[in-house]
Amino acid sequence: MKLVTYDRKGTQRAGALVDGDHKIIDLNDAHEEVYGKQHESFRSVHDMIEAGDAALDMAYELLKKATNSAFPRADVKLLAPVPVPIQIRDCLCFETHLKQAFDAARRVRANAMPDPEKALEEFERTGVLAVPKTFYERPIYYKANRFSVVGTDEDVYWPRYSTIMDFELEFGFFIRKKGVDISRDKARDYIYGYTIFNDFSARDAQTAEMGGQLGPAKGKDFDFGNAMGPCLVTADELKDPYNLTMICRVNGEEWGRGNSGSMHWKFEDLLAYISQSETIYPGEFFGSGTVGNGCGLEHMRFLKHGDVVELEVENIGILRNRVLVRQ
């Protein structure tokens, strides 16, 4: 099932995409149509996740029985599938992205120096902004700002302190049930479903902060910085997350593509590592990190005012956002 959160006159509603993703069935309206009353499990997509398999099974039944609750998707505004996740962890799963991004980051930092060529030589000699050995030893992640999430077709206003605007082509998953010390072979059972993730990045701020070795700060943390959508595809519908074509476009031009099968760390690895002596909860979101070729930095091409970024992940859809510089 493809679950969505949409806006109805200022109220957030939970629905499901149907008819080739062109229509939405409001799940509580459908429940009222079939059973004469609404149901607390369908107050939000997060409530559905917490309600577990019983709510999902009920939703499938409603899609079969409800005949008057569908309406055109184009008539409403989609929000992020879970507008305020209870937690966001973004991980580094793709080696190709990391290699290419660090190489480009060295060039960005060198270009800010009085003698860029000499600075670049020194960075390469001393290993500045090189892929850390830690990446190969364990999954690396940071916790993102869960309050800065936006959905598809939402304008992203760039922070005033940054002039190097970039996007990141990612996808990720939501946790379906509480767990701790999860074994790798049982980890897939903890995945509720998947969505596309655009981890917008202020590259100038990010490269300046990375020397502090505490992870990203203002390079990632700003309003509108985490885009998700257009829907949450439940795990029963997307059975193989490791063979998905991933494409990024800017103003309709393809800038890069990759495949989820190139992940160095799989989602099972993330769950097994992160849940060590730490309880995870239904509704938490884990990002994959950027697929190789999936950001402007890797191509030394960056965004400008008015650019429209489209991230497409096979079997999920297209996440679309326009970037604006505040005037």
What report would you give on this structure?
With 327 residues, this protein is α+β, with helices and mostly antiparallel strands. It is built from 9 helices and 19 strands. Strands 1, 2, 3, 4, 5, 6, 7, 8, 11, 12, 14 and 17 form a 12-stranded mixed β-sheet that branches. Strands 9-19-18-15-16 form a 5-stranded mixed β-sheet, with no helix packed on it. The N and C termini lie far apart (41 Å). The mean pLDDT is 94.
Which labels suit this protein?
single chain, 327 residues, alpha+beta, Fumarylacetoacetate hydrolase, domain 2, 2 domains, 5-stranded mixed beta sheet, 19 strands
Radius of gyration: 20 Å
Tally of domains: 2
Euclidean distance between termini CA atoms = 41 Å
Oligomer: single chain
Helix coverage percent: 10-25%
Encode the helix/strand succession as letters: EEEHHHEEEHHHEEEEEEEHEEEHEHEE
The major β-sheet equals: 12 strands, mixed
Classify the beta-strand content into a percent band: 25-35%
Task: Specify the CATH homologous superfamily of the largest domain.
Answer: Fumarylacetoacetase-like, C-terminal domain
Principal-axes geometry comes out as: globular
CATH class of the largest domain: Alpha Beta
Question: Counting H and I runs of at least 4 residues, what is the number of helices?
Answer: 9
Report the CATH topology name of the largest domain.
Fumarylacetoacetate hydrolase, domain 2
CATH architecture of the largest domain: Alpha-Beta Complex
Q: Can you tell me the residue ranges where pLDDT is under 50 for at least 5 consecutive residues?
A: none
